[in-house]
């Protein structure tokens, strides 16, 4: 549901949720085609003196889960609001389902399910009435009751539908917002920190549902600060900072770009003896903190390296291949672009020449 928040620009007049008729000449993306569902190119947007977005390129392939990562104020929410047409760009182009949301906002929003970081709900109405109101705006007609029951059951709040939303816990409000976002079976789901305020069980349930919706053919864009949560979910990662995209790509391609070859973690009874590895052939990077982390040019070197250490009498207590995580990637990207105080030291990434994103 469109969720106007204070301070937002609505320069082209209020947006409404009424099902908009698609103009005959409007270009439209078939959700089963391979055309991107969202394409933001060179988008800029300022709020007074603050550049919220600057030359942002953001492309969301159909039937994928794209995760937007970035520090506070990076522009993630602004980008989502741009996609729903709640904000217009100052510069650049925005296309969603092949449509310009500034011109065809009602049609775009009818096909989007949105859960914003602070969902606007009506506290003085019951959960059911909140959903029924949205169902009416979406024009669900006679299907409304069934869809409400189905959506509420999906997010486990069917038992609370007759209670006033003002008495809901934070987690229940999030679940109600999630239920509302899928009422009209949208093609594109935009979730801004959808697990915020949820207990671990409910968070996992939401992540499972996101995967399920993806399997059913939906396209999902999710903003999160929880890197662990994004791990295993993201098919495309876009890291934003100061309103622009720093990198984008699949987690596999991005980690392979930052850590080509193989990464192994080693520990030994006398760990300082591992430092000799730093000069070993094929070692691209070496670092020893709690354990030693070695980046090799190719995984084939691992057996030789271990054989050599054992031959030198080093008693190894741990040998573990390490697959760089999204957390490693995030901090490596941040360190490359804007070193952070308080951030854990990244593994020593040696970037390949592979062009990934910017
Ligand atoms: N309506 C607004 N009025 C004024 N400034 C705004 C508005 N919306 C966003 N901004 C500014 O634009 C920048 C980007 O904000 P945005 O909320 O998009 O970041 P974010 O990545 O979603 O941050 P967070 O992780 O904290 O939610 C920030 O500097 C923010 O203060």
Structural overview:
- The chain has 358 residues and is α/β, with parallel strands linked by helices.
- The protein folds into two domains: 38-253, P-loop containing nucleotide triphosphate hydrolases (Rossmann fold, 3-Layer(aba) Sandwich), CATH 3.40.50; 260-323, YebC, transcriptional regulation domain (Alpha-Beta Plaits).
- It has helices at residues 76-83, 105-110, 127-137, 144-154, 170-182, 200-215, 227-230, 251-258, 301-311, 326-337, and strands at residues 38-47, 50-60, 65-69, 91-96, 112-115, 188-192, 219-223, 236-241, 244-249, 262-268, 283-288, 292-296, 316-321.
- The strands form three sheets. It has a six-stranded mixed β-sheet with strand order 5-6-7-3-8-9, with helices on both faces. Strands 11-12-10-13 form a four-stranded antiparallel β-sheet, with helices on one face. A three-stranded antiparallel β-sheet has the order 2-1-4.
- Helix 4 (144-154) crosses helix 5 (170-182).
- The chain is elongated, with a radius of gyration of 24 Å.
- The structure holds adenosine-5'-triphosphate.
- Adenosine-5'-triphosphate is lined by residues 7-8, 47, 50, 52, 70, 72-78, 117.
- Residues 1-33, 339-358 are annotated as: Disordered.
- This is ATP-binding cassette domain-containing protein.
- Keywords: Antibiotic resistance, ATP-binding, Nucleotide-binding, Transport.
- One of its GO terms (molecular function) is ATP binding.
């Amino acid at each position: 549901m469109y969720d106007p928040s204070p301070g937002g620009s609505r320069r082209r007049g209020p947006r409404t949720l009424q099902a908009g008729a698609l103009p005959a000449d409007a270009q439209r993306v078939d959700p089963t085609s391979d055309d991107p569902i969202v394409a933001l190119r060179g988008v800029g947007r300022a709020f007074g003196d603050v550049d919220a977005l600057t030359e942002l390129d953001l492309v969301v392939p159909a039937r994928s889960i794209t995760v937007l990562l970035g520090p506070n104020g990076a522009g993630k929410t602004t980008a989502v609001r741009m996609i729903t047409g709640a904000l217009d760009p100052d510069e650049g182009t925005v296309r969603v389902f092949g449509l310009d949301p500034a011109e065809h906002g009602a049609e775009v929003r009818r096909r989007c399910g949105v859960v914003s970081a602070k969902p606007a709900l009506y506290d003085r109405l019951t959960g059911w009435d909140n959903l029924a109101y949205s169902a009416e705006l979406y024009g669900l007609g006679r299907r409304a009751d069934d869809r409400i029951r189905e959506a509420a059951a999906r997010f486990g709040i069917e038992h609370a539908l007759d209670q006033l939303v003002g008495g809901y816990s934070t987690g229940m409000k999030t679940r109600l917002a999630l239920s509302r976002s899928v009422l009209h079976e949208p093609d594109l789901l935009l979730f801004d920190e959808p697990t915020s305020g949820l207990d671990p069980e409910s968070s996992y349930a939401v992540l499972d549902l996101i995967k399920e919706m993806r399997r059913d053919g939906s396209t999902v864009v999710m903003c999160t600060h929880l890197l662990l949560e994004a791990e295993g979910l993201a098919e495309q990662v876009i890291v934003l900072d100061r309103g622009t995209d720093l990198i984008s790509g699949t987690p596999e391609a991005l980690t392979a770009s930052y850590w080509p070859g193989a990464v192994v973690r080693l520990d030994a009874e006398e760990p300082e003896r591992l430092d000799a590895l730093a000069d070993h052939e094929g070692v691209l990077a070496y670092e020893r903190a709690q354990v030693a982390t070695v980046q090799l040019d190719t995984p084939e070197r691992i057996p030789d390296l271990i054989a050599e250490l054992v031959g030198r009498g080093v008693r190894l207590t741990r040998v573990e291949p390490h697959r760089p995580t999204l957390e490693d990637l995030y901090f490596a990207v941040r360190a490359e672009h804007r070193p952070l105080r308080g951030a854990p030291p990244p593994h020593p990434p040696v970037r390949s020449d592979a062009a990934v994103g910017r």
